[in-house]
Amino acid sequence: MKRPIFILFLMLALGLNAQSVSFLQFEDEDLYKETQSVRGTYSSQTAFLKQLEGMSNKSLSKFVRKKGVTEKLIKQANEFFDKMWYAEAARVYDIVLEKSEAQHTFELLSRAGDSHYFSGNMEKAYKWYHELYLTFTDDISEEKFFKYAHALKGTGRYRRAAKLTKLFRQKRSEPLNELGKDPTTWSSPRLVEVKNLAINSKYSEFSPMFHNDSEVVFASSLDSSFLTTRKYRWNNQPFLDLYVAKADVENDNLTQPKKFSRKINTKYHEASVSFSPDQQTIYFTRNNYGKKLKRGKNGINHLKIYQSQLVDGEWTKAFELPFNSEDYSTGHPSVSPDGKKIYFVSDRPGGFGGTDVYVADILGEGRFSEPQNLGRTVNTSKKEMFPYITNDALYFSSDRTMGLGGLDIYKSDHVDGVFSVGINLGEPINSNRDDFSYIIEESGEKGYFASNRKGGKGDDDIYSFKNILNLNAISGNVLDDLTGEAIAEAEVMLFDKDDIQVAQLRTQPDGSFIFKNLQPVSRYTLKTLKKGYFDATTNVDTKENEDVSLIQSLKPLEEIIAEDEGVLKLEVETIYFDFDKFSIKPKAAQELDKLVAVMTEYPDMVIKIESHTDAIGTRAYNKYLSDKRAKSTRDYIIAHGIDPGRIESAVGYGEEQLLNDCSDGVRCGRTKHSENRRSEFIIVNM
């Protein structure tokens, strides 16, 4: 595993090079290096993987079936897994499950799914979790199902996630906190009002944190006169102090800032605070120093988390936490709402990237458990920073790929210590600059974050945000196209512009439905289904924060059954073919789908297919072409689930039964000729 050398933030500004106060920043790859012991272990234990991957499928399958090989591979995969080398473990588990004859046990499938889940490969995680769920439905734990549900969502299987979640919850006596939420609305868009605060200056303000009931503590370099604007490299930085401001609830602002505490603030840097639930203990980040700054083996002054108690209205002298180190940095603390855990960021050895998020149990009396990495669903090969934990979610910042630019703020849902893949909060919380140190009130409606986005007052500014009422909605009624009566219990699905299903519901007894909290001025697609009716699809564009209403009419399946001169026929729109072709066109496929729907509704229906051509070409060829078209139409219907025995015949008549006068020797336009290229469906038995 790689050990990143951590270039610090919050360093001395006088005579020392340091980086951004709002980052645990580091340089490019040349600053990364591996310790000899880790490199040697890693190399020896993964060399065989390259050898296995170099084999052909046939050779690999033969190799893993040799006596004792499968057992050794499982042992090696388990060793990787226990070291949290999930990517390597996933590769070996895949070989065992896909190439060997090993029994697909609960543990093997579970670990294979977990390895891919923590590595961020949701498709493979879904594969093994899905098999685990199907094979061990009654044994799967809440934690495992939580990850399975997220793998379903992560691969776009929203409808299945919703269905399985409902079934899973019905089997449990207690509701699941996270799974109790509507799986189709977990990524619903929000309308957010963002405001630059009065406390911001031309210097740097960041890392807000709630304090008591009406205050916010934050870091600022307000008193410094030598601040150099942060750039993405080492530079001189100001000293930071902690300030406290009054929260103006009515105006969503912070006012009357003042220094937080003389005992906490020093001549060095202090920032990124968190409080115990009773507000009697503070955790904060500070430079590592005693009587003078201390440097680690790499010559860098690292960061540490310190703790102080409130006694008789005064903060005591701070002492450092036991999991700090002289040789790597630890910072950005966040205490859980119950006060039992502390989350933080570190570049300690064994992580996945530049800085990772860790958690430790708070045991009391200055004691803490051994920190644990939160894993691949939160941490990446990039930088994860500024964690903020709530009862059901972790918010953090990352500069991972596919963001909006710089640091973006992400949300990871959690239950029983299992964290989902981080979801980007999107605009306007995130911008093309750095957005970080996000905190949110228990109500989930408002909070604060920091950003160096354009339009601010200084380097980093603190912003308030408030979720405002989102009135963007699509509502309507589903009616019978023939009678105009309301259709209850019709299934209505909503798809976004990328054809991804985002919501699903059933109509009320009066046929009504409504999808709320949608994106403004966006294209959506409604698909409505009801047994006995044809499916209906409608494109709808939302407006600016208002409801868009429509009527969705469904045609009864029996509507296309008609009698013509004593003969029952299925009157779909004419199935046209291109000139000299017999392949099914997309438009034709839509009509044939209607026919399939009717035959599914009437299981005793038997039909015969008659296909016809125009008079262009020889009679013999047209006879051949029409017969190919009839057979092509029959094959399409059979391929979509209709028993071949229900199609009595599929015959081509060529140009024998023209619908107009465009016979041999008669000049006609292209449109007139196309009228004769058709297929007809005659009902033989109902």
UniProtKB/TrEMBL annotation:
<keyword id="KW-0472">Membrane</keyword>
<keyword id="KW-0998">Cell outer membrane</keyword>
<dbReference type="InterPro" id="IPR006665">
    <property type="entry name" value="OmpA-like"/>
</dbReference>
<dbReference type="InterPro" id="IPR011042">
    <property type="entry name" value="6-blade_b-propeller_TolB-like"/>
</dbReference>
<dbReference type="InterPro" id="IPR036737">
    <property type="entry name" value="OmpA-like_sf"/>
</dbReference>
<dbReference type="Pfam" id="PF07676">
    <property type="entry name" value="PD40"/>
</dbReference>
<dbReference type="InterPro" id="IPR050330">
    <property type="entry name" value="Bact_OuterMem_StrucFunc"/>
</dbReference>
<dbReference type="InterPro" id="IPR006664">
    <property type="entry name" value="OMP_bac"/>
</dbReference>
<feature type="domain" description="OmpA-like">
    <location>
        <begin position="564"/>
        <end position="686"/>
    </location>
</feature>
<dbReference type="InterPro" id="IPR011659">
    <property type="entry name" value="WD40"/>
</dbReference>
<dbReference type="InterPro" id="IPR011990">
    <property type="entry name" value="TPR-like_helical_dom_sf"/>
</dbReference>
<feature type="signal peptide">
    <location>
        <begin position="1"/>
        <end position="18"/>
    </location>
</feature>
<dbReference type="Pfam" id="PF13620">
    <property type="entry name" value="CarboxypepD_reg"/>
</dbReference>
<protein>
    <submittedName>
        <fullName>Cell envelope biogenesis protein OmpA</fullName>
    </submittedName>
</protein>
<keyword id="KW-0732">Signal</keyword>
<dbReference type="Pfam" id="PF00691">
    <property type="entry name" value="OmpA"/>
</dbReference>
